[in-house]
Prior knowledge:
The structure is a homodimer.
Chain A: H1 6-20, H2 22-32, H3 40-60, H4 63-89
Amino acid sequence: MARMNRLDALGLFAGTLTTIAFLPQVVRTWRTRRTDDLSLAMLVLFTLGVGLWTVYGVMMKLLPLIVANAATLLLIFFILWVKIRNLSRRP
Amino acid sequence: MARMNRLDALGLFAGTLTTIAFLPQVVRTWRTRRTDDLSLAMLVLFTLGVGLWTVYGVMMKLLPLIVANAATLLLIFFILWVKIRNLSRRP
């Protein structure tokens, strides 16, 4: 693992922003349980992509990418789960 | 710039997914012009974060991060623009 330096700090800050960006969406989705304006295709592609970014981060030994993408993956899973549940309830 | 290798290809594929993930959302937002279920805070934080990821990619000379985040930035700008326009029309 590369040692922590200014670039790692920059990456971790960027990752913190893109990860916590999902928190308001998680809260909104949690409260309203509405996901009509969220695209299922977006959620599925994004989940796959973030998963692969995590793999890329692990293989490149880039700590900011690993931390940010693993955390984002957890949040996006929740939103995806509510979206799929909503779709299955409206035939 | 590092030469193209398998890890670059993995990163570019991951970036392609997370970038095109926004296309269905852009299309949906374009068609419906509705953004009620999209959190403004999410969009702002995400725009800032993706911008910083682009800077991180440039400084780390990681082509996949530069390409993916610059492209995502363009798409997220559109969604953010519609969201802000909608908010300004509903006082």
